[in-house]
Design a protein that fits this description.
CATH architecture: 3-Layer(aba) Sandwich
Number of strands: 8
Largest sheet: 8 strands, mixed
Order of helices and strands: EEEHEHEHEHHHEHEHH
Helix content: 25-40%
Strand content: 5-15%
CATH topology: Rossmann fold
Shape: globular
Distance between the termini: 46 Å
Structural class: alpha/beta
Oligomer: single chain
CATH superfamily: Alpha/Beta hydrolase fold, catalytic domain
């Protein structure tokens, strides 16, 4: 239940780490921080992507604390230092994404609701975005506003998705659900070489995260299991259903990445177009999958849009337009002389 830190990745001061017990008996590693120097503006609950862990978000936590927010985050079941339901801890495994709802509700019930200041906002990435959007639509992710970066609405990583989905269902039916997906392995994607990686264009942040992943060992899980893949397709299928995004009444800011080889940016943009009033979609050209682990320029544009949206005001729409203009200046324009498309 401790946090691992290093000179290159120090934990923000004041962390409180505590176990959270889910109704089905899984122990989650959770942590929270309170801002120094005055009352908090609220709490931001950070939901990680697949195969991520608390330590990867130390920089983000520090930036949120600097903005005056309390922060809560945790490792999903099946990854990080939270409990496992399969013997090989390197496997990212769940039987169904409804299990993640139990994680969210346990963290809110035992940590966020009784201990942390209101209002509560959400910041979710990739798989965490899929879970957060589902929870917002179904009413069990109780946040005032939600920010989702490259949410897992559809996968671009998997070609011929309909065929892969059918194959995964057959393998699960044959009793192979707890095995790695075909071609999967125990090595974390975060430890692969920087050149050609899918996650970030920033070599320094990528190296930092790779070092942490290596230090955590099985905490930085490898490939998902067949059952996880079946469950993921079911969750994404629900998000893609006609009219589903209109069910989300929580004001939501969704970010798509222009160079994302993991999640399908066109599907994310289509989902975002169905959101109701008060919600916004921002595309970040040049970013790979992990916007929060990207270059300073991309991250600065993200934070400008975040600051305009959270905690929210009458000027939100105008501020988001300003953020989009800064994004154009900071990211797109330097690419033009270089001849990028």
């Amino acid at each position: 239940m401790n946090l691992y830190e290093s000179p290159d990745n120090p934990a923000p001061p004041g962390a409180v780490v505590q176990p959270v017990q889910t109704p089905d008996g899984v122990t989650l590693r959770a942590a929270y921080w309170l801002p120094a120097g005055g009352p908090a503006r609220g709490t931001v609950v950070v939901l990680h992507g697949r195969a991520e862990f608390i330590e990867k978000y130390f920089e983000v936590v520090g930036e949120l604390l600097g903005r005056g927010f309390a922060v809560a985050t945790f490792d999903w079941r099946g990854q990080g230092s939270s409990g496992r339901s399969v013997e090989d801890g390197r496997k990212g495994h769940v039987a169904h994404f409804s299990e993640f709802r139990r994680d969210v509700e346990a963290v809110f019930g035992q940590l966020v609701d009784p201990l942390l200041p209101k209002p509560v906002f959400g910041l979710a990435h990739s798989m965490g975005g899929c879970i957060a959007l589902t929870g917002a639509a179904e009413g069990w992710f109780p946040v005032q506003r939600l920010v989702a970066t490259t949410p897992m609405v559809a996968l671009s990583l998997v070609k011929h998705g309909w065929l892969v989905r059918r194959l995964a269902r057959v393998l699960a039916w044959l009793g192979l659900g707890s095995r790695f997906v075909p071609g999967g392995r125990g090595q974390s994607i975060s430890t692969e070489p920087f050149e050609g990686n899918r996650l970030s264009g920033d070599p320094v942040r990528y190296a930092r995260n790779a070092a942490v992943a290596r230090a955590l060992g099985q905490g930085a899980v490898g490939s998902p299991t067949v059952a996880w893949l079946v469950a993921a397709y079911e969750a994404m299928g629900a998000l893609q259903a006609a009219g589903y995004s209109a069910r989300i009444k929580v004001p939501t800011l969704i970010f798509g990445a222009g160079n994302d080889p993991v999640c399908a940016t066109p599907a994310i943009a289509l989902f975002a177009r169905g959101l109701g009033p008060g919600s916004t979609y921002v595309a970040i050209p040049g970013s790979r999958h992990e916007i929060l682990m990207e270059s300073d320029e991309i991250r600065a544009a993200f934070w400008k849009a975040f600051d305009a949206f959270i905690p929210g005001s009458q000027d939100t729409a105008e501020q988001l337009v300003s953020a989009a203009e800064q994004l154009e200046d900071a990211v797109v324009q330097p690419l033009v002389p270089a001849g990028d498309d």
